[in-house]
What we know:
Layout: H1 6-20, H2 25-93, H3 103-121, H4 126-132, H5 141-148
Amino acid sequence: MIDLGLSKLAIIGVVALVVIGPEKLPKVARMAGSLYGRAQRYLNSVKAEVSREIELDELKNLQKEVQDAAHTFKDDVENSIAQNLADVDNAWRDDVPLPLATTDDLARKAREFRRKKLVRSSAIPAWYKQRNGGKMHVLSGAARVAKFRPGGKSQGSFY
């Protein structure tokens, strides 16, 4: 920009006062100020537009890079899947015999199943629950809260 100090502005003001005259000087000063404001607004809008264009170009470049990366990733995944499918197909065609379950294995699995089912379905006798303090009845959530609330069951219901 133009480097204008206070002394230079004073000289310009004195020259303008002599050339233009004291009657027209306020109008000329207002017009010069409005023109200066318009010029500043125009420069700011141009700067903003240039910065938007630069950001737009950067975003387009970034989008292109991301698309290229996604395309290479997609190609890698497709190649990997195709290779794995080919490996599975080759293994299937090689007719590798699968190990067959023996009767001992089947009997062991049946015993384990029966043992686990018995453990899941067996009930604990009531006399054992009473002796060891186990649960005798199923309580709802509200009943458990009321049972363990400080003050015991002496409090009335809220309904």
